[in-house]
Every structure is written in C-alpha cells, then in structure tokens.
Specification:
The structure is a homodimer. Chain A is built from 11 helices and 15 strands. The first copy, chain A, has about 375 residues and is an alpha/beta fold. The relative contact order of chain A is 0.12. Chain A binds a DNA duplex (19 and 19 nucleotides) through loops.
Chain lengths: ~375, ~375
DNA sequence: AGCTTGCCTGAATCCTAAT
DNA sequence: AATTAGGATTCAGGCAAGC
C-alpha cells in the first residue's frame, strides 16, 4: 500500500487498528478503500468530480478569460458513465463506514441529483441536504441565468435503520445564538492566503474548498478523535481541518502533485487546544433587502404611486420591483437619480408612499422585511 | 374533456388556440396533458407529490440487521415506482412545452434528486437550481438533524440547444438593488390570511406554496400573456398568481375538492393594472442600428476622427460606415478589437467623437437614430 | 502610516439575429 | 443547417501600488 504519512494528529490512535491514520493513500479511491477494514470509519467527506460538461470558453465583460475547470478528471463520456463511477465509490464508502457512520457529499446541479439518487438506490438514508450559500460567488457574466451562488451538500446515514450517528446539536445551537442550526450555511469561497498557490503563483487545485465549510461539517457530525475519510482528497482541506480540530483523517488521492501539496499543507497545521474545539458561531447575513421583496410580500402594491418628500416627482411601482417615471423604467435608485438629474440617489430615503395624507418613506417597509427575516440570518 | 373554468384573465386569448386557458382540468396530469397540442405552453411549474411509499418504509419495524441486498431491492422497488411516475409526467410536460419553454420543479431532499436525475435523462437542460430559503421554517423538534429550512427548485430548458427562453434579467436586477439576481431566495412560508382554510378551520391543502414564491418564478421566466401550465395544481397558487400578474394558466388536478377551492380562490383575485406589468425594455431587445446609418444620416461625417475614452487610439470614419485604423479597415467593433488586441469589442461604447473638448460616445448617435425610427413607426 | 485606486480572480453547463 | 458577425455582459474580496 503506497502512502505518504503526515505528522500524527494529537488524539490517540485506536488500539489494534489497521487503519492508516493521518495518511494520504495514493491511488484510485475504490481500489484503496477495498484494502481498508469494513465498518472502521466514523465519517466520510467526499468532493467528487462534478462532471461540469463545459463547452466553449467564457470571457468576462472586460474580455478576460475565465479559468474554468477543464481537467481530465472532470470529464465523463456520459451520464451513465458518471453514474457507474458514482455507484462504485458510494458502495466502497458504505463498506468502510461504521454502522453509526455518516457520509457527506458536496456537488452542484451538474452532478448532485445523480449522486443523491445513487446513494438512495444503494440504501443510504438522507438526513439533510445542506446548502452552502457563497458570500462571494462568481457572477453570471452574460445575464442569462441566476448567479450560481450556492452548492449542495447531502448528509446521509448508512441506512434508514442507522442509529447513534453523531450530531452535536447542543454545541451547534449554543454557537448559533441559541437558535437551531439550519440547513443553509453562509460561507465565503476559498481565496486569499488560504488558497494554495504553486511556485508559479497559480492555484494548486482548481476547486479547493474553504476550511470554514469543512470545519462546520466536522464540528457538526464528528467527535474529537473520530476518523474522517476523504476519497477525493485533492488539496487536503479535509485533512488540514481534521488535524486542526483533533480528528484523524485518511485521504485518498490519485494525483501525486495534489497529495504532495496536501501533505505539506497539513504538516504546517497547528492543532487547536482541546477546549477550543467547540462550534464556531454562524456568520450573520448582511441585511440587504431588495425593493422587489417589499413588493413581493405585499407591503407596497404594484401600481402604487411613489413621490419624493416635496412631491415634485411621481413614479409608479411595478410588479417586478422596478418603478416607472413616465416611460423610463429602472430601480428605485436609478429612477430617483434620473428624476433629479443626478448621478446617484438612495431610493430608500428619496421615495415615499402617500397615504392618508402622510408620507411614509419606503425605507420603513425595508425595516419590516428585515424584522421578518431576522431569524433566517 | 372535463374542466372547470375560472373568470378569464385580462390578456387576450390567442386566436385559434385549442388551449383551455385559465381553466382547471380535472384528471390525471399525464392523461390530460396528452390531450393538449404539442409545443403550446410557455412555462410549466410543477410541485409533484413526494413518494408516500417511501415514508411507509420509514415506519416499518426494522431494528435487526436486514440482509442488505433484500433491503435495497425492496427500497429500489418503491423508488422505481416513483421514478416511473416522474418520467411519465416529465415526458408529457416536455411534449407540450414550446421549444423555447422552460420547466420549474420544486421538491425537497426526499424527491428532488430523483426528479433532477430523471429530467436530465430525458434531455432537459438545467439552467439553475434555486434554493428557497424559508424565513420561518418548521423547527426540528428532536434536535437530531439540521432544521430543514429550504426547498430546492430546478429551472430547466427543453434541451441543451434550446434558445430564446425568457429570463427578465434587467428587471430582476433593477428590482434587486441593481445587483444581479442570485440562486438563493429568502421567502417566508405560506401562513396567515394567505393560507386557505376550510369551513372547519383546517388547512385546505397540506403543502400550499407562498404566492411570493410563484410571483418570483413568473416574473423571472415569463412575459405578460404567456401560458403557464401546472400539472399538480393543488390549491391553485400558480393560477392565482398568474391571474394577478396577467399570465394565462392551465391547471391539472385530480382532486375535485382542491380544484373547487382553487377556482374560488382564483375568481377572487384582482389582476394588477396593465402599467404595473408591461415588460421592461431590455437592451438586447432594442432594434439594431448599423453604424452606416449614423453616417448616412449625417450624424457623424465621413472623415471624422474616432478615439477611445483615453485617446490612445484614433480611427477615421469612412463613407460606407466602416472605419480605418491606419491601413486596417473594418466595422467599429472589429477595429475596436484590433486596436486593443482583443477578441471582441463593443464599438458603440468604445469609440467617441471628440468635439469642443468633449468626448461623445457614438452610442449617443445610435440612440438618436432609434428615436427617429420610433417616430416614423 | 493610512487611505484610495486599480487589478485580479472564483466548480460556469453564460448570445443570437442575419446570412 | 451551419457560419458570421453584431454587440451585450460582473460582484465581492484580497492584495499591491500609489499618494
């Protein structure tokens, strides 16, 4: 068994275990997993290829080229080839999981429906799907779709009858301002100093995941000393976070360059002090409210008249949250600017609803929306 | 064809159409859809049922370690029935969709992975998956999982080569603080006065969707007067919102009680005023203007000098509407690209006329031509 | 030092009418 | 049907350079 070993994590190695703890196994994940003992792993985190099926090149509006994921490991002949690949690794993972073990998989709409169906077919029991909302996603440059601002994780037990899986509910709740942890997580993408760069200054791996995401997963569904297996180890985020949080890891990676980078990265990690291993508080939402939401929720009706404080200008509210000044249509800010012949305008304070002889700034309705949404932050 | 008709929506019924507009068809959706003409519907919104057999499996006493093969085979049978049902309605829907039509489906982790896989298998092309984040979800009482705080929608075109689908990008952006719309939507669940109650005070339908959700869908992906089909009409949220927003609906529902409640609900809806609904003009829909026309009509004279904003490049206007950069001759776009060494360039915004010390983008002259042509009808 | 400005980049299934 | 060419299109954040 070819492997590279990283410095041992702090927690004790289980007595008599045949597991190659805190090690990256070089090779195909199905073949490597078959060498491991059955029922030996507490949790699996898997970030499989997404099968993006990209066609041509994509340019930003400034004509720069988007550095897309075109690596050979992400190319599959067909959906059925991808499905066969998926079933194979899901089966291998299910064998090495303890009866109480759980699986986490991450994916996008390109592959996650295939993965979810396959794991249901194989007898896994879904506990949750979790949405990773990206605070700073790549925009949609052509304006032809919604900005793809999230990825999906599936959390599943080995079977419908699985009992005793780990879920650190109390710690998560305490770390979330005493609110129950929700299935939607707001976390920034991996960038800046956290992003591994080669000597040439280019990213080591095209799809490195943020450590905050793995930390949330491990703190939610494992205990200190648990063994976490990652069959698509890549740049080793799972290993780095596991070591930091006092969990053991086992990685499997086909690419020796990725594995080498991951080993160096993990060796540089300083494990947290024992008492610090509690759930990190959830990041709060920026309380940005769109005027379309105010209309959508019925606080201001389509067709309503908006006026400025001195009633010099009048605009009509439209169903989609734009407003019209004569024939000119745009956002509350843009139309406020147009009305005054200015470059910019804060539409929230400029526009008012006139009712019962009183002017109500639309900003008041924004506050109501914020109150409604506060719990969801 | 058995149906119940609601008061006609405001928009005109297309001439010679065989479609039962603004009507609820009573019956099985596959059978009813097969009676409709192919390629006739602009959008489909589907809220299919979950697999109840699955939930039966959940409650089955199953404490002992069951033979894994038998267990998964049994589960496969129930998934298989759900998959067959899903393929049937997805196929029927695909037939009635226009080539440029799109499908929206909503579901939770119980069924959405099956639906997503099936629609990919049938040739649909996913445009986005969208997360409906619930501002006020049902709490998780036992504290054994994350609070299930979202549902997933899939937005798909009829095929990978489908063109011309409706996406009201400019309006959505203007209604969203001038930021492009994202794939995660925060909307409260349906409750309070909006929730339909029977005479006994109990809710009419167990999974009534909020009107705000449907409004977001219809405003994103349809135009006024479009035909929206809902094969699982239920309490009729799709119809109520379609009527309010000046879209036509066709509903299919097996349960006569649901259909009756939906009809009453829709009849009580007041359509929005026309002016609040008209499609906001998008730049990409504006009439094309040739630069030759600008020269022809004397707005820019042959021989005039064009420069970029920073006056790094200078080109000469020719009588035929081409421009010359040194010895290179071509369109305003081609020459703008050549000047910067880029693949592409929008010549309308890149090139300017310098006069009286001020730079005027030639786009301004295009606007004048458009205004002239509008007056001429 | 501290602030402003500009540049770069991120799992992307990202155009369409006219010829 | 396939090709050509017009011309429309981006947000947050990290970091370096400039002032």
């Amino acid at each position: 068994m070819a492997f590279q070993r990283t410095g041992a994590a702090r927690a004790e190695r289980p007595e008599g275990s045949a597991l190659p703890l805190d090690t990256i196994l070089i090779g195909d994940c199905v073949a490597e997993l078959e060498k491991l003992p059955a029922g030996s792993v507490d949790m699996v985190f898997a970030d499989p290829p997404y099968n993006l099926q990209l066609q041509g090149a994509l340019h930003r509006p400034d004509d720069s080229l988007v550095d897309a994921v075109t690596d050979s490991w992400d190319r599959f002949e067909s959906f059925s080839a991808y499905d066969a690949f998926t079933r194979a690794w899901l089966l291998a993972v299910r064998r090495v999981l303890k009866p109480s073990g759980t699986l986490w998989v991450i994916g996008s709409y390109h592959n996650i429906f295939r993965v979810g169906s396959a794991l249901q077919d194989l007898g896994y029991w879904i506990l949750n799907d979790v949405v990773w909302r990206k605070a700073n996603p790549m925009p949609n440059f052509r304006g032809r779709r919604f900005t793809n601002a999230h990825e999906t994780l599936i959390w599943a037990a080995r079977g419908a009858d699985a009992k005793g899986y780990t879920f650190n509910y109390e710690a998560l709740k305490a770390g979330n301002e005493d609110l129950q942890p929700r299935s939607d997580w707001l976390i920034p993408i991996c960038s800046g100093a956290e992003r591994l760069k080669g000597e040439d200054g280019r990213k080591v791996h095209p799809t490195q995941k943020p450590e905050a995401l793995l930390a949330r997963v491990l703190l939610s569904a494992t205990k200190p000393g648990d063994v976490v297996l990652d069959p698509f180890f890549g740049s080793g985020t799972t290993g780095a976070v596991a070591r930091r949080l006092g969990r053991h890891f086992i990685g499997v990676e086909r690419d020796r360059d990725y594995a080498a980078a991951a080993n160096a990265r993990i060796a540089a990690v300083t494990p947290e002090a024992e008492e610090a291993l509690t759930a990190a508080p959830a990041k709060r939402d920026a309380a940005r409210v769109a005027f379309a939401t105010v209309v959508e929720r019925g606080l201001v009706a389509p067709g309503a008249r908006l006026v400025d404080e001195r009633r010099r200008y009048e605009a009509v509210v439209r169903a989609d949250g734009t407003i019209a000044l004569g024939t000119v249509i745009g956002s509350i800010h843009r139309i406020g600017a147009v009305a005054q012949g200015r470059e910019a305008c804060n539409g929230w304070t400029f526009w008012h609803v006139a009712e019962a002889g009183r002017l109500t700034p639309i900003d008041a309705y924004r506050e109501i929306i914020r109150a409604e949404d506060r719990l969801a932050g």
